[in-house]
């Protein structure tokens, strides 16, 4: 008897793509699928061939272009229309034509949806499931049935929902997936429903299932904030097939985050769920998928978020140094993430020492230096600086204290920026909603033994200053051509003082391979931006190993 | 016998502020506290007086400036140091000096932390709890004990963790909060631990507790993605005190999102947890807090997220229109959110009609007008405007559509602003940290039948523009002298485009009696600020009943 492997079923490319603002091209999907395969999922649901032309194209190209090591492709579709035959339904035929080895059928299992949305009888609803499953199984496909609105339906009319699941199994479905389509379930309700249904249908607990046995699965959304808890509750109750998406993408509040679920099952329950060692690459994979979807990663995401293992409190830092295990629920390297120390005004010397180590500076035993750095950090934070989001500015400060000096790549003599509307364009509307302002900046500085005066234009004053600064410096430091500003954040502090407030600007810069963050503060957004730009360029030059000229 | 009310304990201002990148000023905290009170939480943990100077200041000002209807303030602090006496410990005295009626003490309840982090004996660890609690209770404070690392500690050495909780109760603590400090718990573990500890200590299930009975509480972090599930599991097991933060702010993956927990308990379990009807305002309150923290709201946030009830048009559109309950886990108005459907503009028109009524305009039956306003709002929001936080700009737009014209108090011909460093001041330091920039602005406009050219100076470009505009207009409209800018917020949209990003500015203005908010958007922070300034002055003049001259 061979045990059934646990099914990790990814629907990023289909249900995940329902997320507001997400629009995946065929090329995007072809780029994401190998990442999912690398993670080690067993199934990749690619889309709905026949219904969505892009998805038809995806399956056509996937058959030729993808070579998956761990996963098989699944085509998603619906049961036949009411009052037709499965083999006559073009939507069902398109599922066959996709050549995906697995077909996942969405089936109504809430009798209210059968009557009010499908507008057919409960019996025809069941026949639609049986016929379509039997037809596809007869054509040699493995069939998964997504029992839509199962939990809500079961709580309203358990007999019908059970009958829908039974119809699917009887017709040859391998898995019936209990879907919390509206996402409103709570874990103890999931436990109750999965346990009852498994008993009623005689489906074995997944850990006891042999190859060929029926399996229950779970498909959770996060509307109650319980997608992970609900999924774990279903698995504990014997559901051995878990659907979800990378980064929890999906409609409304999203689908369950598959990486979080898998990490909990593997690292906390010791359950083998993925093929290979992909979990140790999960952070990189999740971020790579985010690059393709172009949705900013969520820093607070469990396991793989940028902040997931970031520690700020000074209270804990000295103990973390000794015993990191006491302050982390898992070893972050198990998911390819890292512990990070955040330097803030709550930081003590211990967290500065740890931060230094993270940045590659051994500060152990340098008590006096640590005190100096800590004092500077606290003074700066009292003025409005924040270093926990500006590692590069912190490193410049640390290097300055370590070496007693700051690398002087250039000396600024003065700068100026002008923003103005062209006379006339602002005139026709008091609100000047259509005014077009232009910005210009001039920078005077000394670099490479010369005095340089350069001017830049931009659509805003900071952009213009950036252009002027580059134009002044790239002849002396050609490495700067690679530097690019990729993010720019403004925060007004002491906001109760109107336009007199202090401004903090955070800038993120890249050289195409790495990125770094710097901070500037001033009574004036332009001055704060200027300061963070200067730090960004100095840091970039230091790290490129450039000597001041 | 009076039943114990359920404790909703908010720690946004203390544990939430540990979030990476968050840095709350005293003014921020004083602005957030009334929002928490409006939500109806029972406790607001304001910070750690004595340890953090800002927090000492918060409690000093809160005592004078805040009038809370539902919540009491809690001061957070630690048990006395090892080998001292509670009344001699300045950190403990500072908790008394804060005058907060509730003191929440963090106490070590994991014996490994006692030995390795506190570096003292298990017995002294318990004495630190007993002494400090007894001292504060003797001084008339209600005492809550946050049993740090309780779950991990209990799973390692249950006897010690139980003894820590017992020491707290015996010394007079009202609540012992079992903290999942590292956030690694899963719901079924939480159920087991809470049930066992409650039994061992003889603490009643919260629903059966009488006034004066001991209570257990829960404090969850989201490192396993189960903060909500863990909190609900603890409540189901009898923990009647829940700690969390608005928007789930907090260190690493954040604390549990208090609004999600409360909405689940109130709407799904029928448990009364909040004072008043604040849950119906939860969406507005959560977003208002996000405006103050300046952390972009997360669209996929359960209950209150912008996408939480957004349905993509498709398969079920007509069914959703007929039967929304079949497609939503709750009625979104229960948390002050809205269903959004791309195929239907009905929700949009209804909310504009409601908003109009709120502002004093009866728009009922004016379908065509509502459609025009809705279209303009949607177009504007697509460009980055947001009217949620800018009622005055919305009202100007609405009046324009109602009257067919916009009040023209003045016509702007052009404006210009210059920010520059004086040559020499920027020169002595490459980072120009000590540079002093000055800003100047010139405005040319027509008002009262004349062309006026005026110049203003300020410490920033927006301040200078504001001065120039006032100087140009106050002779014609003396009412403007009373207007004062009191808040100014900048948010960068499309942040992946560096300094090319679109900028949104929100301005709040007062005439000494009322205040109003306006919005401006542009590729350029100055232009966006200018637009919001103009709206602010026009709105102020309209509402002062001033006729254009």
From TrEMBL, chains A, B:
CDD domains: DRE_TIM_LeuA3. It catalyses: pyruvate + acetyl-CoA + H2O = (3R)-citramalate + CoA + H(+). It is an enzyme of class 2 (transferase). InterPro entries: 2-isopropylmalate_synth_dimer, AIPM/Hcit_synth_CS, Aldolase_TIM, Citramal_synthase, LeuA/HCS_post-cat, LeuA_allosteric_dom_sf, PYR_CT. Pathway: Amino-acid biosynthesis; L-isoleucine biosynthesis; 2-oxobutanoate from pyruvate: step 1/3. One of its GO terms (molecular function) is 2-isopropylmalate synthase activity. Its EC number is 2.3.3.21. One of its GO terms (biological process) is L-leucine biosynthetic process. Residues 6-283 form the Pyruvate carboxyltransferase domain. Keywords: Amino-acid biosynthesis, Branched-chain amino acid biosynthesis, Isoleucine biosynthesis, Transferase. It holds the Pfam family HMGL-like. It comes from the Bacteria. Belongs to the alpha-IPM synthase/homocitrate synthase family. PANTHER family: (R)-CITRAMALATE SYNTHASE, ALPHA-IPM SYNTHASE/HOMOCITRATE SYNTHASE. This is Citramalate synthase. The lineage of its organism: Bacteria, Bacillati, Actinomycetota, Actinomycetes, Micrococcales.
């Amino acid at each position: 008897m061979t045990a059934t492997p646990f099914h990790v079923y990814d629907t990023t490319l289909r249900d995940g793509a329902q997320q507001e603002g997400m629009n995946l091209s065929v090329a995007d999907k072809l780029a994401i699928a190998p990442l999912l395969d690398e993670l080690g999922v067993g199934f990749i649901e690619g889309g709905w061939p026949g219904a969505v032309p892009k998805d038809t194209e995806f399956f056509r190209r996937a058959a030729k272009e993808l070579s998956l090591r761990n996963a098989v492709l699944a085509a998603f579709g619906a049961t036949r229309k009411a009052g037709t035959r499965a083999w006559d339904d073009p939507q069902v035929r398109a599922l066959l034509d996709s050549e995906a080895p697995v077909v996942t059928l969405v089936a109504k299992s809430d009798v209210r949806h059968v009557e009010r949305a499908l507008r057919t009888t409960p019996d025809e609803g069941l026949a639609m499931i049986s016929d379509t499953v039997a037809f596809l199984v007869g054509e040699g496909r493995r069939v998964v049935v997504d029992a839509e609105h199962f939990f809500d339906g079961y709580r309203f009319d358990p007999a019908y929902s059970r009958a829908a699941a039974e119809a699917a199994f009887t017709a040859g479905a391998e898995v019936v997936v209990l879907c919390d389509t509206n996402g409103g379930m709570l874990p103890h309700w999931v436990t109750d429903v999965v346990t009852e249904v498994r008993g009623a249908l005689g489906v074995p607990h997944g850990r006891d299932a042999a190859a060929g046995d029926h399996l229950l699965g779970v498909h959770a959304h996060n509307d109650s904030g319980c997608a992970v808890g609900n999924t774990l509750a279903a698995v504990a109750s014997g559901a051995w097939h878990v659907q979800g998406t990378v980064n929890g993408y999906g409609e409304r509040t999203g689908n369950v985050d598959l990486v979080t679920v898998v990490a909990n099952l593997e690292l906390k329950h010791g359950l083998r769920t993925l093929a290979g060692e992909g979990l140790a690459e999960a952070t990189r994979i999740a971020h790579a998928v985010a690059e393709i979807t172009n949705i900013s990663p969520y820093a607070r995401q469990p396991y793989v978020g940028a902040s997931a293992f970031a520690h700020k409190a000074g209270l804990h830092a000295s103990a973390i140094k000794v015993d990191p295990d006491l302050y982390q629920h898992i070893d972050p390297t198990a998911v390819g993430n890292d512990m990070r120390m955040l330097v803030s005004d709550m930081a003590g010397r211990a967290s500065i020492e740890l931060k230094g180590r993270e940045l590659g500076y051994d500060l152990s035993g340098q008590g006096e230096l640590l005190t100096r750095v800590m004092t500077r950090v606290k003074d700066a934070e009292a003025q409005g600086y924040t270093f926990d989001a500006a590692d590069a500015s912190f490193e410049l400060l640390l290097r300055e204290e370590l070496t007693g000096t700051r690398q002087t790549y250039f000396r600024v003599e003065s700068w100026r920026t002008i923003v103005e509307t062209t006379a006339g364009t602002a005139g026709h509307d008091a609100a000047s909603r259509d005014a077009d302002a232009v910005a210009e900046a001039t920078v005077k500085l000394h670099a490479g033994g010369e005095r340089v005066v350069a001017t830049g234009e931009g659509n805003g004053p900071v952009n213009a200053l950036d252009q002027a600064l580059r134009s002044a410096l790239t002849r002396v430091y050609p490495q700067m051509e690679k530097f690019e500003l990729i993010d720019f954040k403004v925060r007004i502090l002491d906001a109760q003082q109107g336009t007199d407030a202090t401004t903090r600007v955070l800038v993120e810069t890249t050289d195409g391979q790495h990125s770094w963050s710097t901070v500037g503060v001033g009574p004036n957004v332009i001055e704060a931006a200027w300061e963070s730009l200067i730090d960004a360029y100095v840091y970039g030059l230091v790290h490129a190993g450039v000597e001041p000229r």
